[in-house]
Design goal:
The structure is a homodimer.
Chain A (H helix, E strand, L loop, with lengths): L1 E5 L3 H13 L4 E5 L12 H6 L13 H8 L2 E3 L4 E5 L4 E4 L4 E3 L2 E4 L3 E3 L12 E2 L4 H14 L3 E5 L3 H12 L3 E5 L11 H13 L2 E4 L11 E2 L2 E2 L2 E4 L3 E3 L2 H5 L23 E3 L6 E2 L6 E2 L4 H15 L13 E5 L2 E7 L2 H6 L4 E9 L9 E9 L5 E8 L3 H13 L4 H4 L16 H12 L1
Parallel strand pairs in A: 1-2, 1-7, 2-3, 7-17, 9-15, 10-11, 10-15, 11-12
Antiparallel strand pairs in A: 4-5, 5-6, 8-16, 13-14, 18-19, 20-21, 21-24, 22-23, 23-24
Helix pairs in contact in A: 1-8
Chain lengths: 433, 433
């Protein structure tokens, strides 16, 4: 029995490691097309910033580690160019064939900037790999650019803007849609815009970029461009092998992460999964989901029987020291999904004043028909991650506002006010329901 | 229709304010025996420390505020000495009688140090009121004590020890039981002991104190003693009125917070409430519960129909900058409640090293028979409150470990590692189940 895993970053390695736990004797091979495995892609903005000084700090495991400690063969520079499921084999670039009995596809996603002329200019960079980050660092050192344009206000774009600003550049972020972070939420976008502005970064939404010229993009003068306009799942291998692709454009998988081909699993940024709130397939590529789906896919591929519960779409990022977090659906997203959303947004101190309490903003969204919580956002300095995680836990349990309002949350002055901002928001929302 | 509330701190004022929202025309009178209302008792250790410089910083509302803004009459120095339910009236010290149709009893709890001789000496202080804190401050300034003994390792005792040590005193904490914070959990106690020791405070457990002498307590030389050996609910008024007292010793109340007398409600530190995990009545007096039960009691007393879900017993305190938090049941407590507990305790970084990640310790306890999460503890610097709150939310929803393990928690390097310590603990626990 042999398990082949295509992809050696978060999902692929989680799958391989978990499969090994389930079956100590299984033959496991991980095929990674790049030169390194297991790097923390979410740390790339901090490598760009200079906070992470050595790219090796972002590499969690090496192929040697997996070979020696886990008895898993990890091959780098091994690019799969075809899957033949009837023959249960994959073909590598170069012609070599590798047999499998079970297969996990963890091919990830890639940067996607359609129809932007000049994207291949030498001052234009993506930020998806260690190599990308190092090339930008080198460019910063050698060319000393003074003005940067960041195309795309997703996580990578906003974190790159923060990192470049901290390196002394003037930065403008150009986002095609009306919102940042793919969250259809004008208040959230306004808060991000205000925080960026306060630290000298301009955010332009509704800014369609069609061409990158030598000295400007969409009228913004710049000598460095970060292209972070979006990602798309790497599904070509799967599609060519006859595996069903979902409506989101990512590989369709059931709650065991099995694809339409029996014995073939998909995990990580290339797969769509169930959204806990809508109950429908969604594609929200994040590292946490990649690890979790990798674990479940690996367990099942090794003969286990595990279920992936689904995602709430929880995310957080820091912009100049302020946390911006959200989970579940915004009002607009809830409406688009057929709910009848009601929301409450409050501002409250995150701690007493004598512990230097700062303002936290909490928004909660619920369904008017059922009182069920649908999502929320938290913006603030202290406790932002913890608060959005409480909302996420509530989404997992389909908690209603009247239950959420009574959560027995911890209180002590160094940590929170006696009424946590979450509970104040819930009380406000309960009045609206 | 008149509502009388006995007690003007957390529960009583929450009840009055909420009753006003439910019924704008209700006559509402709050009777408080002390000189001030609405002070944040949890801030007292910080007043003692000197971080809070003015006691007025801890007073949230004044009687004038309630009178003018809420049309609620708040009387201070109004001590109720009897309740006659057949006549629907309370009698004040001095003889005045006040009629009610609905009554909320929020008489709180008091310091309780049985059989300690010398507890009335002039260098012995409790720490339950603003006045207590100010008297200790004055004593520190005038007498310049150098060595303090704190009797009792509950919240107030440990926070007072921290505060006194920061004022330069040598401090020893004497606790009668084997555990701190009433949590039967040797690991938790060991962690508290280590943190205290590292900052020069000695913790002696199993230390029975029977007498306080002029220069020493239980062999510990000291010139200042803080008596924080326990609290007991103020139930005498209720008991004399024929109201049923629960097995915990606090006033028994149903899930609407109504006592055994119809139309009479109890809330806050004098009442017992349902424990979410055990389903049985419990008495865990905390400010958060006082506020929540006050709200529900006030709503129902004003003609609403609300339910109090119960408590998880969530709590947190800071000891020299480290957070110690717990919720639900420890292993020993779970066993005593008839569960068959399994636990996993892990140490993990709370953030990546390049964001100065520190070790966080997470313990999760589950029931072997059902896989249901029963409780947990979190010890660490960053994110401790948020993490224990996620466990608390899971207890509200009776989540099982296999669900908890898949929680979609927020990740970004400034806030957490990609596998949050909570999820690592859950994975470990899942292996044990």
């Amino acid at each position: 029995m042999a398990l082949v895993v295509i992809g050696g970053v978060a999902a692929g390695l989680s799958a391989a490691a978990r499969a090994r736990r389930i079956d100590p004797r299984l033959e496991i091979v991980v095929l990674e097309q790049g030169p390194v495995i297991s790097y923390g892609a979410c740390g790339l903005p901090y490598l760009l910033e200079g906070r992470v000084r050595d790219p090796r700090q972002l590499i969690v495991y090496t192929p040697e580690y997996f070979r020696k400690e886990r008895n898993i063969e990890v091959r780098t520079g091994a690019r799969v160019i075809g899957i033949s499921h009837p023959r249960r084999e994959v073909t590598l670039h170069g012609g070599e064939r590798v047999r499998y009995e079970r297969l996990v596809i963890a091919t990830g996603a890639r940067s996607f900037a359609p129809r932007i002329a000049g994207a291949d200019r030498s001052h234009v960079f993506a930020l998806r790999t260690l190599d990308d980050a190092q090339r930008i660092r080198a460019f910063l050192g050698e060319r000393r650019p003074r003005r940067a344009a960041v195309i795309g206000a997703g996580y990578i774009g906003l974190e790159a803007a923060d990192a470049l600003r901290r390196n002394g550049l003037d930065v403008t972020v150009l986002e095609r849609s009306a919102n940042v972070l793919l969250r259809e939420d004008p208040h959230f976008t306004a808060a991000v815009r205000a925080q960026l502005h306060q630290h000298g970064v301009e955010l332009r939404t509704g800014a369609e970029v069609t061409a990158i010229e030598a000295g400007q993009v969409a009228g913004v003068p710049c000598d460095l461009v970060i292209l972070a306009a979006g990602v798309k799942p790497n599904t070509e291998l799967a599609a060519e092998a006859g595996i069903e692709i979902g409506r989101s454009g990512a590989i369709r998988a059931d709650d065991r992460l099995e694809t339409s081909l029996r014995g073939v699993y998909a995990a990580g940024d290339c797969a769509e999964v169930c959204h806990l709130v809508t109950g429908r397939p969604a594609w929200i590529p994040l590292g946490t989901t990649a690890n979790k789906t990798g674990r479940v896919a690996g367990a099942n591929a090794a003969g286990g029987r595990e279920r992936f519960a689904g995602i709430a779409g929880t995310s957080i990022l820091a912009i100049f020291g302020m946390g911006f977090a959200s989970t579940g659906l915004s009002v607009a997203q809830a409406r688009a999904e057929g709910f009848s959303p009601v929301a409450a947004r409050i501002e409250a101190l995150d701690r007493p004043r004598y512990f230097r309490g700062k303002t936290a903003t909490v928004e909660l969204v619920a369904d008017r028909a059922t009182g069920r919580l649908l999502g929320g956002s938290v913006i603030g300095e202290e406790g932002t991650a913890g608060r959005v995680n409480v909302i996420a836990a509530a989404l997992h349990s389909r908690l209603r506002v009247e239950d959420f309002e009574q959560l027995d949350l911890a209180y002590s002055p160094p940590f929170s006010p006696v009424w946590d901002p979450l509970l104040i928001a819930a009380q406000q929302l309960a009045k609206e329901l």
